[in-house]
Amino acid sequence: MTRPVAALEPPVALIAELTHRCPLSCAYCSNPLELERSSAELATADWLRVIEEAAALGVLHLHFTGGEPLARRDLSRLVRRAAELQLYTNLITSAVQLDDRAMAELAEAGIDHIQISFQDAVADLADASGGLKGGHVRKLAAAARVVAAEVPLTLNFVVHKGNIERLEAMLVLGEQLGAGRIEVAHVQYYGWALRNRAGLLPSREQLDAATATVAAARRRLAGRVTIDYVLPDYHATRPKACMGGWGRRALNISPSGKALPCHAAQTLPGFDFPSVRDSSLADIWAKSEAFARFRGTDWAPEPCRSCEHLEADLGGCRCQAFALTGDAGRTDPACALAPDHDIIARAIAEAETGAALVPRRIGGRRASV
Amino acid sequence: MSGELATPKFRRGVRLRFDEARQAWVLLAPEKMFTPQGTAIEVLKRVDGVRNLAAIIDDLATTFQAPRDVIAADVAEMLRDLSAKGVVSL
């Protein structure tokens, strides 16, 4: 059995980005602008080995995501192996390809939980946002299949200024579809979402209204539906403890096998991220310089180093620090105490004017599967 | 809730298992993980959707040779807490 070196806790979660292919082209996608092509993807045997190594290392939650994981024909095979190893399997999907056959295969393989993304509560607007005509209706049918198969269902709504006014209707939709959990997530500004930030970022007033809507729905649905709410850090005063800490709780594997502390880390320059093609997960977790670089708080600059909040927020997100300041080692500008905090104020002001959205695409055209 | 006649069970998507890497019991739920300690583990191991609260309390009182009323109060409080967290239904 492989074990990490002393004092290093094993990762709790493995995020398996099976592919960057996706039938949707949401402008708020946090995948990198440079999407990996299908020819670069790991083979089934590679993923099976990664899953086995993850279980041995102490991973408990396995999240299958992408892109669209259902674009991989071997998905149910991977789920089955993970279930055999007692990993808690979660499928994060757009669900437009979740037909009767796919659902039956997944249920039989032992999937523990399915999370379906919805772009809006109104079909036309949802389809326009996802870039796929008829997509919303297919998602509704897929959600019913998940419930009929008695697999726990989460509905995920990514909210932004183009749909935030209909949050109440989204929560009602989640309740009607029989979701045990609804996740309302404000856009996280990485990859395509960062590029489209001026067209997505809600105003402070919109955010406050949304937060009140969530609070009311939580009271109404208490004991029946759990609502998780992910706040946008642009309107916060403290940054988020991104991923629960760099290299502390999770490992993310990109479609081509790159091991990352989070999916956005791929954008950081000056890193030699290890590949699961050449290294074991145990070695990556315990020995890789890339995973060690921002682990803990020793790396933290001022004003974080002497700040009472450092243990709580760990200096915020390294990828956001890089994306906004060009230096991954600076304090996350989302923090009101950060020297670069004015970047956030400028972004909020810029979003008041708005901008046309650029849909996510692989190689210059809308993605297809 | 109907007192000790209620049969607690894990909500859909919640699993209890022993993790070899951590040498610890873990309670897994969508996007969540709890690491129960001590008596909580003994209670959770008996939540099988078949035994009612009275049977679980009887078993614990016998196994640990503890006063039944003390056990009953502890178990009720713990299950209320887990119910509020969406882990167990009563």
Q: If you had to describe this structure to a student in words, what would you say it looks like?
A:
The complex is a heterodimer of chains A (369) and B (90). Chain A has 369 residues and is of the alpha/beta class. Chain A contains 14 helices and 11 strands. Chain A has a 9-stranded mixed beta sheet with strand order 7-6-5-4-3-2-1-8-9, with helices on one face. In chain A, strands 10-11 form a two-stranded antiparallel ribbon. Chain A starts with 12 loop residues before the first strand and ends with a strand. Chain B contains 3 helices and 5 strands. Chain B has helices at residues 39-45, 53-63, 68-84, and strands at residues 9-10, 15-19, 24-29, 32-34, 88-89. A 3-stranded antiparallel beta sheet of chain B has the order 2-3-4, with helices on one face. In chain B, strands 1-5 form a two-stranded antiparallel ribbon. The longest helix of chain B has 17 residues, at 68-84. Chain B is globular and about 35 Å long. The chains are: A alpha/beta (369), B alpha+beta (90). Chains A and B meet through loops of A and strand 2 of B.
Summarize the structure.
The complex is a heterodimer of chains A (369) and B (90). Chain A is α/β, with parallel strands linked by helices and 369 residues long.
Radius of gyration of chain A: 20 Å
Number of discrete helical segments of chain A: 14
Through-space gap between termini of chain B: 6 Å
Task: Supply the number of helical segments of chain B.
Answer: 3
pLDDT below 50 for ≥5 consecutive residues: which ranges of chain B? none
For the biggest β-sheet of chain B, the strand order reads 2-3-4
Integer-rounded radius of gyration of chain B: 13 Å
Shape of chain B: globular
Largest sheet of chain A: 9 strands, mixed
Secondary structure category of chain A:
alpha/beta
Helix content of chain A: 25-40%
Distance between the termini of chain A: 39 Å
What is the helix content of chain B? 25-40%
The string of secondary-structure elements of chain A, in order, is EHEHEHEHHEHEHHHEEEHHHHHEE
